[in-house]
């Protein structure tokens, strides 16, 4: 009679089966895919060369500017909302909770439509400062603030309560203790999730195309989509996707490094 397999042996067999299935799927895809048609549609080298340098100097630059402006606005607004959520004044807590639930529940696309259409209708004759750049910063910031507020609130609550008590015993006011003692520690804790939010905003910046932009205001998705329509070929979309990865992959690696450092510090 054969002896029963140990837990380690069962784990190795399970891993071997999973690897075999993965290899089999890759082989099947490689055999069945029509690589010539894919190359003709997505990998035309001469067409890819024509995208440069505009895809970097215009599209990627605008994407980065849109992302950073939205992140900055969202970070400031998120801090305000987080402090309102922690306030002892009930109406502040209610307003912050309503904002978070609404803007976390609505798709980002609807927020952009609201910024581009509803705001001008609600306030006739007024213009959002910065034109398209201002609209994008507002749209991205409104969405990001709802998520950042909860992240910042969690970071503040993760700081030991004794830190506030020690600061108050030294004569600090509550506001000064929050700014000088609590918030610096909270931000150090929440740097990884905030960096992850930056990656998400970088991808959400593609929604700018629904605002109606000029040629010089196009971001990567709009840029690739326009040229794909003009050339009847998807190579520009593939190149635009690679430009996204050029930024998001390093940022994702930074997030993992920061998370590992935070775990070691704990």
TrEMBL record:
<dbReference type="InterPro" id="IPR010065">
    <property type="entry name" value="AA_ABC_transptr_permease_3TM"/>
</dbReference>
<protein>
    <submittedName>
        <fullName>Amino acid ABC transporter permease</fullName>
    </submittedName>
</protein>
<feature type="transmembrane region" description="Helical">
    <location>
        <begin position="105"/>
        <end position="124"/>
    </location>
</feature>
<keyword id="KW-1003">Cell membrane</keyword>
<feature type="transmembrane region" description="Helical">
    <location>
        <begin position="64"/>
        <end position="84"/>
    </location>
</feature>
<feature type="domain" description="ABC transmembrane type-1">
    <location>
        <begin position="60"/>
        <end position="255"/>
    </location>
</feature>
<keyword id="KW-0472">Membrane</keyword>
<keyword id="KW-0813">Transport</keyword>
<comment type="similarity">
    <text>Belongs to the binding-protein-dependent transport system permease family. HisMQ subfamily.</text>
</comment>
<keyword id="KW-1133">Transmembrane helix</keyword>
<keyword id="KW-0029">Amino-acid transport</keyword>
<feature type="transmembrane region" description="Helical">
    <location>
        <begin position="16"/>
        <end position="33"/>
    </location>
</feature>
<dbReference type="InterPro" id="IPR043429">
    <property type="entry name" value="ArtM/GltK/GlnP/TcyL/YhdX-like"/>
</dbReference>
<dbReference type="Pfam" id="PF00528">
    <property type="entry name" value="BPD_transp_1"/>
</dbReference>
<dbReference type="InterPro" id="IPR035906">
    <property type="entry name" value="MetI-like_sf"/>
</dbReference>
<dbReference type="InterPro" id="IPR000515">
    <property type="entry name" value="MetI-like"/>
</dbReference>
<feature type="transmembrane region" description="Helical">
    <location>
        <begin position="235"/>
        <end position="255"/>
    </location>
</feature>
<keyword id="KW-0812">Transmembrane</keyword>
């Amino acid at each position: 009679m054969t002896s029963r397999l140990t837990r380690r042996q069962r784990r190795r067999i399970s891993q071997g089966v999973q690897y075999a299935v993965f290899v089999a799927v890759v082989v099947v895809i490689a055999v069945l895919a029509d690589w010539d048609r894919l190359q003709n549609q997505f990998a035309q080298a001469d067409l890819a060369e024509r995208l440069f340098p505009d895809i970097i100097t215009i599209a990627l630059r605008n994407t980065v500017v849109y992302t950073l402006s939205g992140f900055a606005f969202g970070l400031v607004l998120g801090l305000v909302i987080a402090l309102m959520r922690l306030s002892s004044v009930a109406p502040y807590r209610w307003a912050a909770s309503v904002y978070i639930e609404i803007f976390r529940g609505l798709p980002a696309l609807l927020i952009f439509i609201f910024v581009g259409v509803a705001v001008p209708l609600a306030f006739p004759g007024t213009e959002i400062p910065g034109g398209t750049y201002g609209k994008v910063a507002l749209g991205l910031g409104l969405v990001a603030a709802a998520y950042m507020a909860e992240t910042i609130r969690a970071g503040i609550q993760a700081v030991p309560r004794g830190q506030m008590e020690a600061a108050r015993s030294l004569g600090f006011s509550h506001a000064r203790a929050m700014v000088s003692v609590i918030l610096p520690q909270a931000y150090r804790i929440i740097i990884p999730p905030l960096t992850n939010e930056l990656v998400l905003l970088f991808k959400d910046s593609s929604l700018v195309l629904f605002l109606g932009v000029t040629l010089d205001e196009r971001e990567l998705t709009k840029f690739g989509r326009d040229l794909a329509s003009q050339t009847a070929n998807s190579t520009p979309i593939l190149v635009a996707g690679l430009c996204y990865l050029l930024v998001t992959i390093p940022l994702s690696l930074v997030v993992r490094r920061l998370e590992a450092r935070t775990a070691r510090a704990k």
